[in-house]
């Protein structure tokens, strides 16, 4: 947990995760980098904590959060699957 924030109880953490997932589901047009950053910042996770959870190197996560990033499909799926999300392709 990012030290700048007061630690959340288990119930608060669960509610926060549900809120984060709902927000992402309500915004399917968000680019991947925005989703990656939103998950980490809203859950108050450091890059190292997110790396432990997702099994993705902190440097890779940091790059994924940049607008000009070009992550591999495998990395994107690893991050999303950890939080119960899937990649969806839709036509406009």
From TrEMBL:
Signal peptide bounds: none
Domain of life: Bacteria
Keywords in alphabetical order: Plasmid
CDD domains reported for this sequence: HTH_XRE (cd00093)
Keyword Iron: no
PROSITE patterns: HTH_CROC1
Pfam entry (one): HTH_3
Domain HTH cro/C1-type: 37-90
Record flagged with keyword Disulfide bond: no
GO molecular function ontology, one term from the record: DNA binding
Name of the protein in question: Helix-turn-helix transcriptional regulator
Organism: Acinetobacter baumannii
């Amino acid at each position: 947990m990012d030290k700048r924030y007061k630690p959340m109880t288990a119930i608060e953490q669960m509610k926060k995760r549900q809120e984060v997932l709902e927000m992402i589901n309500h915004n399917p047009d968000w680019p991947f980098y925005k989703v990656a950053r939103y998950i980490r910042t809203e859950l108050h996770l450091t890059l190292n904590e997110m790396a432990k959870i997702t099994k993705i190197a902190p440097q890779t996560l940091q790059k994924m959060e940049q607008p000009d990033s070009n992550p591999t499909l495998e990395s994107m799926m690893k991050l999303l699957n950890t939080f119960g999300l899937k990649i969806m392709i839709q036509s406009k």
